[in-house]
Q: What sequence folds into this?
């Protein structure tokens, strides 16, 4: 089916706001593949692969490490590389241009903080499964998220042979217990309730208005972001749904007439859409 870029661009340009949903597909487009044992993973974590049998980033993120020193060696290296040294990519630049000066909100399960690094406003982002730049207590003894960047810089610089020095390992200031990167893994994950409230306020503000839901790289069975976004489009009379995915375009029956499905690589699709938007 031929994609009508102009028609989609028109909907975006006449929208009151854009709600962006994003997941793995966008990260992969940017070169961060959580599930792949690829060259990038070999370059960054070849030693961890051979020492611990870690098969991919996701595997390392959920691994049971023999020590805090090794756990933080893995994490500080990953965060240093994928967050702190990250440079905005073309696909993000295109997305920013498409949104233009419209109000927007971003809901994502991607935790690597790339939206923020690309200049999207932190208060307009809800990282539903946490972020790599925050940490919490493994067993939360108090419900506060702490920034991890400074600790990561020190640990990554001091790491040797897959271990960080013990004195740099983050500890809970109240009970001395271990800390964990703020990702939704297991019990005790602290929900970002402030971001949830900002998201609700956004939905409230644009209730009944012309909202474009732009969904990027979310698997067709995703229940965390995709299913709720499709339900939102179904109940909002003036909402439009634009879903982009490679080989997995799925739109529920009830919103077919107000939806656009685009099958293709995000980098190509967003470049074409940006062009159609004339930006
Ligand atoms: Zn504690």
A:
């Amino acid at each position: 089916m031929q994609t009508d870029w102009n028609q989609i661009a028109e909907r975006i340009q006449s929208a009151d706001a854009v709600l962006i949903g994003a997941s793995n597909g966008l990260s992969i487009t940017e070169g961060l593949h959580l599930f792949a044992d690829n060259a990038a993973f070999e370059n960054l974590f070849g030693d961890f692969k051979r020492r611990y049998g870690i098969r991919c980033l996701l595997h390392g993120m959920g691994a049971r490490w023999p020590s805090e020193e090794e756990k933080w060696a893995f994490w500080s290296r990953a965060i240093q590389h994928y967050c702190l040294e990250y440079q905005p990519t073309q696909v993000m630049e295109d997305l920013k241009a498409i949104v233009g000066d419209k109000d927007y909100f971003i809901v994502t399960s991607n935790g690597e903080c790339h939206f923020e690094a690309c200049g999207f406003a932190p208060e307009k982002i809800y990282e539903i499964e946490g972020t790599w730049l925050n940490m919490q207590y493994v067993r939360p003894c108090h419900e506060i998220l702490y920034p991890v960047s400074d600790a990561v810089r020190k640990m990554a610089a001091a790491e040797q042979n897959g271990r960080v020095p013990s004195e740099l390992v983050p500890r809970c200031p109240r009970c001395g217990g271990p800390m964990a990167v703020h990702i939704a893994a297991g019990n005790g994950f602290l929900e970002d309730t402030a971001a949830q409230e900002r998201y609700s306020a956004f939905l409230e503000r644009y209730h009944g208005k012309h909202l474009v839901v732009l969904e990027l790289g979310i698997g067709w069975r995703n229940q965390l972001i995709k299913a709720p976004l499709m339900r939102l489009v179904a109940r909002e009379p003036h909402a439009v749904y634009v879903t982009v995915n490679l080989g997995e375009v799925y739109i529920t029956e009830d919103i077919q007439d107000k939806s656009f499905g685009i099958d293709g690589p995000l980098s190509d699709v967003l470049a074409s859409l940006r062009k159609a938007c004339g930006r």
